[in-house]
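Input record, target 12 of the design panel.
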């Protein structure tokens, strides 16, 4: 059978013919009546028959909307014929029938117009019976699919892969009515087929589109083709962010391509899954783009950015591959605030509007003169879990950039260590059209990162991943990323240095106008609680309007380490980030204040009259001199709360309720190593680590926990990279032990 396009004429076409029939029938009935017959009675019968035929014809031609006026016309014609047959002709009756015909013509043209219809035409040739052409293999596949899908699927052919016949095959099928490729993809058919034919571990079945929507292709992998490692082979010629780039390859070797100008990306993967390697691969492609700047937020001490910056640190190139690196939440907050300011400005400034008009588009065209900004976050969940206002702001800023920055060329590529809601919000995932999920520890994490169930295939190899492009794929596709080695990174950074663009002058101007209030998301920077921010280099540069211009001056220590210039072990800690300030409003020196501070919590007490009469703190601004030391408060009579606190601290109470004191175990090193520095001076980083680990013995700590403890005790923010280096040296020297068997490790503790 075949369908051809035809047409159905308007009902108005038949009005003149039916009018002539009515006139002729009336004349015949009138002549019979004049001869003495009762012919006029037949007009009534003709009217009844006309009503029946009209209803049937209207229903058959699907003209239900015209049924009302057609039945009225039949009744009117029947009455008119009966009147003429009984009483004879007159001018009035003739004019009446013609007017009625004209009105019927207009109604038919309106309510029963001509329409196009699909006509089914019988083909001259008869399709041969399917089962007579099927091979035994095709018949076996058809029986299997019909049993698993519970639908009359027809197998049209089974063909091996053209490029690797031994590695897989394609099963071409016709789908019955009501079954589509999307419905098959959303079902468990692919997993059921893989289990039914007993495919080896790592092999998958994909459901692909065929030539038309009534057919599909089952792509069956017979060998674990992803076991073959693929090395990076990226040219060093100029490219554009508008070009498609491959992030992985399918088992057949087909590239999985994406466009980073159109979509943001999420990369998820547990430790050792190949997540950082994939980020290197993405940076390697972006390094060729003459119209894209690379900014990196890396709380791991620059671990992702480091290899790309090594040639720049050594002076081998003048332009770094990565335009800006943020190693902590303070610099990350400044970076994100500047990115948001640039994105908002590009929406309305005249240069951007002119570009959009010239290109006749609402999406800003980017090029080397106004490059896109791609912000890459490595393990962005660490920032989300960090304690403090700035960390929370960075998390909010990243989501905001992903939502508002697409049209203006400010994109986000975020990586997460776990597929959980505390590290990745659904609202952020929803605006990221490219989702890559490498190996995870729990099955449910794949669904959270991808937003779709990828199936039950295990990822057996480092770099294996599910890739889901929301605008192309029905379900996540299994693939494997390429391996990127350090030597290739450094060679590529040198070869592509001349291709790197610079931030446009308008962007630099906007960056210089970003204030501390912008970094704090509108909060008053003169608030006393933000005073500890002053003195941090990046904050001082924000206040001076040179946060972007001085970005590499602030990285002098990082660049020195990349040049293999080791910092001394007993280096003094670098600039500290704002320490958490106590919020207790108990009277300084009171029992309540001592009790609260000893417990590490803020006391919930009403301020005393004297406290409320104190002069408020003056606003802190950069030009302000150092504030005078606060005056010593006069002792006041203890209130009820203070009396309770005094009782809790009494010798009698402590003797009864005090917990047994844990005996201190001397560290393996000399005792002098663990003696804190003089009052008011923080110990060096090495001593800080030993003190923290010693005080928590026998509990073992991770590097992050050690960093947090150092910050809480001394208000010093030591980079994760520096802590990791010193922990490694202390393990080599036998002072600490490392446990890598526990999850979320490694853990460090005192050596026995």
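The sequence produced for target 12 reads:
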């Amino acid at each position: 059978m075949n369908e051809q396009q035809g047409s159905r004429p308007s009902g108005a076409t038949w009005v003149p013919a039916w009018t002539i029939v009515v006139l002729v029938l009336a004349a015949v009935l009138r002549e019979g009546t004049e001869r003495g017959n009762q012919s006029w009675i037949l007009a009534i019968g003709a009217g009844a028959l006309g009503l029946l035929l009209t209803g049937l014809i209207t229903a058959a031609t699907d003209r239900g909307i015209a049924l009302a006026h057609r039945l009225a016309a039949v009744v009117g014609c029947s009455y008119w014929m009966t009147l003429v047959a009984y009483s004879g002709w007159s001018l009035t009756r003739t004019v009446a029938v013609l007017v009625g015909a004209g009105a019927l013509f207009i109604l038919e043209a309106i309510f029963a117009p001509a329409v196009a219809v699909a006509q089914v035409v019988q083909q001259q040739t008869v399709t041969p019976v399917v089962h007579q052409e099927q091979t035994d293999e095709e018949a076996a596949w058809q029986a299997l699919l019909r049993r698993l899908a519970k639908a009359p699927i027809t197998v049209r052919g089974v063909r091996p892969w053209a490029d690797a016949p031994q590695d897989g095959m394609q099963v071409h099928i016709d789908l019955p009515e009501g079954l589509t490729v999307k419905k098959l993809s959303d079902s468990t058919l692919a997993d059921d087929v893989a289990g039914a034919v007993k495919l080896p571990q790592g092999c998958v079945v994909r459901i692909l589109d065929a030539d038309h929507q009534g057919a599909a292709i089952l792509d069956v992998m017979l060998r674990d083709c992803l076991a073959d490692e693929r090395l990076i082979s990226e040219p060093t010629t100029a490219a554009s962010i508008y070009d498609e780039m491959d992030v992985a390859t399918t088992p057949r070797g087909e590239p999985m391509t994406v466009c980073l100008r159109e979509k943001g990306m999420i990369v998820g993967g547990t430790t050792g899954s190949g997540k950082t390697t994939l980020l290197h691969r993405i940076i390697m492609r972006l390094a060729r783009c003459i119209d894209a700047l690379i900014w990196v937020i890396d709380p791991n001490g620059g671990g992702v950015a480091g290899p790309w910056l090594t040639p720049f640190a050594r002076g081998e190139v003048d332009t770094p591959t990565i335009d800006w690196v943020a190693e902590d939440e303070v610099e990350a907050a400044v970076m994100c605030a500047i990115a948001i300011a640039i994105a908002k400005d590009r929406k309305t400034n005249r240069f951007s509007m002119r570009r959009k008009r010239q290109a006749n588009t609402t999406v800003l065209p980017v090029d080397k003169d106004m490059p896109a900004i791609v912000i890459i976050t490595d393990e962005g969940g660490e920032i989300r879990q960090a304690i403090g206002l700035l960390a929370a702001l960075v998390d909010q800023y990243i989501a905001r950039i992903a939502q508002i920055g697409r049209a203006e060329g400010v994109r986000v590529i975020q990586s997460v260590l776990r597929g959980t809601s505390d590290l990745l919000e659904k609202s952020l995932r929803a605006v990221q059209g490219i989702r890559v999920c490498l190996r995870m520890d729990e099955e449910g994490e794949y669904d959270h990162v991808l937003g779709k169930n990828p199936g039950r295939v295990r990822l057996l190899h480092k770099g294996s991943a599910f890739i889901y492009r929301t605008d192309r794929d029905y379900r996540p596709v299994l693939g494997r990323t390429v391996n990127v080695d350090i030597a290739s990174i450094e060679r590529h950074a040198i070869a592509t240095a001349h291709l790197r663009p610079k931030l446009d002058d308008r962007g630099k101007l906007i960056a210089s106008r970003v204030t501390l209030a912008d970094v704090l998301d509108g909060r008053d920077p003169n608030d006393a609680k933000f005073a500890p921010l002053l003195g941090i280099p990046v904050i001082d540069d924000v206040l001076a309007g040179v946060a972007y211009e001085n970005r590499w001056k602030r990285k002098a220590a990082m660049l020195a380490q990349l040049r293999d210039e080791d910092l001394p072990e007993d280096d003094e800690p670098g600039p500290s980030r704002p320490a958490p300030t106590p919020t207790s409003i108990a009277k300084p020196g009171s029992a309540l204040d001592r009790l609260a501070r000893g417990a590490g919590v803020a006391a919930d007490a009403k301020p005393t009259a004297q406290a409320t009469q104190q002069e408020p703190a003056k606003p802190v601004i950069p030009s302000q001199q150092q504030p005078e030391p606060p005056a010593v408060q006069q002792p006041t009579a203890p209130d009820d709360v203070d009396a309770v606190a005094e009782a809790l601290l009494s010798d009698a109470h402590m003797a009864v309720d005090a917990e047994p004191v844990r005996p201190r175990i001397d560290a393996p090193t000399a005792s002098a190593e663990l003696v804190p520095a003089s009052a008011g001076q923080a110990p060096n980083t090495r001593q800080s680590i030993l003190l923290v680990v010693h005080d928590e013995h026998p509990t073992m700590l991770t590097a992050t926990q050690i960093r947090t403890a150092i910050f809480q005790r001394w208000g010093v923010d030591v980079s994760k990279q520096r802590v990791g280096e010193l922990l490694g040296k202390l393990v080599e020297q036998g002072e600490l032990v490392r446990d890598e068997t526990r999850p979320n490790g490694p853990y460090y503790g005192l050596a026995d």
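The two ends are 85 Å apart (CA to CA).
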